[in-house]
Amino acid sequence: MIVCIAEKPSVARDIADVLGAKDKKDGYIEGNGYQVTWTFGHLCTLKEPHEYTPNWKSWSLGSLPMVPPRFGIKLISNPTYERQFHVIENLMQHADMIINCGDAGQEGELIQRWVMQKAGARCPVKRLWISSLTEEAIREGFAKLRDASDFQPLYEAGLSRAIGDWLLGMNATRLYTMKYGQNRQVLSIGRVQTPTLALIVNRQLEIQNFVPKQYWELKTVYRDTTFSAILRKSDEELVLEAEKQKEGAAAKAAKPEDNRGIEPITDRERGEALLEQIKNSPFTITNVTRKNGKEAPPRLFDLTSLQVECNRKFAFSADETLKTIQSLYEKKVTTYPRVDTTFLSDDIYPKCPGILKGLRDYQALTAPLDGATLPKSKKVFDNSKVTDHHAIIPTGQPPQNLTDMERRVFDLIARRFIAVFYPDCLFATTTVIGEVEQIEFKVSGKQILEPGWRVVFGTPSAQSQEEKEEKGGEEENVLPAFVVGESGPHLPDLYEKWTQPPRPYTEATLLRAMETAGKLVDNDELRDALKENGIGRPSTRAAIIETLFKRNYIRKEKKNLIATPTGVELIQIIHEELLKSAELTGIWEKKLREIEKRTYNAGQFLEELKQMVSEIVMSVLSDNSNRHITIQAPVPEKGKGEKAVAASDKPKKEPKKRAPRKSATKKTEQAAGEKQSADALVGQPCPLCGKGTVIKGKTAYGCSEWKSGCTFRKPFE
To answer: Going by C-beta distance under 8 Å and a sequence separation of 6 or more, which residues neighbour residue 310?
Structure first.
């Protein structure tokens, strides 16, 4: 008998249907020589510390670092899981062959391997490796079953990730909780969670410490068109530009004469003098250039870019998008979601006309492509950019019974897929330069000549707000016809401006920062290169963000992610860069990917992690300062329930008794002394910025530095 094991009951049913197994039993489906069973995601997990030695049951600094001589797995304590595992165990003990039908990714491989190990499976194992759950894909996958040994590196990478998260999470969480925590509250530290929190905290401190500077802009209106004075770039700006050009693929060296214009206006007197200098002289057009350009369709989606787009357009959280796209995959209308490539492999190209035909609700958009040979662009089809899975695309099966969220996400994926077969958008950029009293002014306008792929998105001649912001506010507007040498009156004016602090992270911008280890990058090619060093995996980033919410390290203000005082203090108390540097975590992630590709050794990775954990323990234990972290109770958000915790970073339910939630009795006792203890805050250093002191307002306590941007606020109870 051949035993097939899937990751979910719904997937097992789909596989059983294709294999002709119809007889439903307790925990599996049988028929046609097959027994199809399932897990519920993870049935097994790494053992808890006390299961290696009783000495590790109680939390103490003396027991650190905890490094088991050999890691072991156990069944997760859950009656449903245990019952299903015993069904699987019995089937596997009598199987002639096992087919691993788990999700085709690192986590899916780990889930099934652990179950097979725990069940003591001894027979040959094959692997079903598919990118969608359509009947055609399942049949094709079974016709091309692969040896389980092909996926050994994938398993080793997943195992290394799990052990690495255990080593760092268990040791660092106990270490920081015992050393710096108060009131027996757990201070959770994680391999990916903590560097992600550090990104948010560092951005927040940049904003808080930002000192706005005043400056002025000189503009003039000529023939109903606003021209801006050209500003000379500073040496620092030129260096930054040169660095960006080095990183860019086809950078052109900037010529010294390109850096022309007036010095930036930093005092009103100079601005008014310039205004006086030009106001009575005519404005003369000195140069008009028109450059035709073309813009390729947007890339297909990987998981991160889909989460970014859904957060921007619909304010969906990364976790909501992941759950929605997973549901669309299980409903067989989109392909495998946990991917980090935006390309398709060449073997998908012949299937594309059929997929387009299946998009019945988009016939108006697919009709122009009917009967024509579809273009095969290297920006879409590139085998070298595809490893295990390709970009997220529709399967061609008509969607049915979709929820509102599913419809919106499917619409984004379908339109992106259709758009890549449309022509480029053709546009013309006109730049006009004028001069008054040797001061040069400039205006640019962009005109769409042929909308091309833009019609698929219903924006043939307009940009979204995000596009305008990304491209520096460049408008798609048509300028009047200007002629070199023409001259006439104009209306100049001086505009007072202030430099702006960086923006707080949103989920969209945080996902991008995680993808590129904190480097802000707009260029697609450069972003692809930095993905190698991204922190977390596309499939786990959403859960990491949710974990930070759950632990009250961050909260949401509209779309912005704000670190709580506890989150800020935690990052400030961590002196070990290894724990909070996105760049260093990105290097570990790169090594995990290399383990997958057989170019790095899993044993070496774990030895490095053990060494690192020992160094961190020594460093923290030698800290003689009496620092402590103030733990603030979470403020419940409207409509926000408890979210899933990232398996990779949770402190494994430890310690059960050491970190109780505040009980009702405790809350009542606390309420009595609340006002008194809160009044005692007045005059104390601000727990958020540390610069100001706590003051008492009409309805809440605040910070004396509120004018400088400190957002600390504690409402009166």
So the answer is: 316, 320, 321, 324, 408, 409, 412
Name, in order, each residue with C-beta under 8 angstroms of 605's C-beta and a sequence gap of 6 or more.
Answer: 160, 164, 588, 591, 592, 595
Catalytic residue among 336, 422, 505, 553, which? Answer: 336
Domain boundaries 169-210+504-622, corresponding CATH code: 1.10.460.10
> Which class in CATH covers the domain with range 214-238+259-297+425-498?
mainly beta
Superfamily classification of domain 303-420: Topoisomerase I, domain 4 (1.10.290.10)
The pLDDT tens digits of the residues spanning 515-548 come to 888 775 556 665 666 677 788 888 899 999 999 9
Rounded Cα distance between 455 and 459, Å, is: 6
Q: Which residues of the chain have pLDDT under 70?
A: 183-184, 243-258, 459-476, 520-530, 630-692, 698, 705-711, 716-717
Residue type, 48: E
Amino acid at 693: T
Instruction: List all residues 6 or more positions away from 581 whose beta carbon is below 8 Å from its beta carbon.
Output: 195, 198
Beta bridge partners of 229: 441
Distance CA 344, CA 555 (A): 37
For the chain, what are the domain ranges?
A: 2-144, 169-210+504-622, 214-238+259-297+425-498, 303-420, 686-715
Q: What DSSP state is assigned to residue 50?
A: G
Nearest residue to 319 (alpha-carbon basis) of 640, 100, 33, 74: 640
Token pair 């599913």 in the structure block, residue: 406
- Whole-angstrom CA distances from 404 to 55, 337, 363, 410 are 52, 19, 21, 10
What is the C-alpha to C-alpha distance for residues 338 and 357, in angstroms, rounded to an integer? Answer: 25
How many CA atoms are closer than 13 Å to the CA of 213, on its beta-carbon side? 5
Q: How far apart are the C-alpha atoms of 137 and 139, rounded to whole Å?
A: 6
CB 376 within 8 A of CB 335: no
DSSP 531: G
Helix (H) or strand (E) holding 56: none
Is 701 an annotated catalytic residue?
no
Top CATH class of 2-144 equals alpha beta
**Amino acid letter, 686:** C
Q: At 443, give phi and psi (nearest 5°).
A: -145, 145
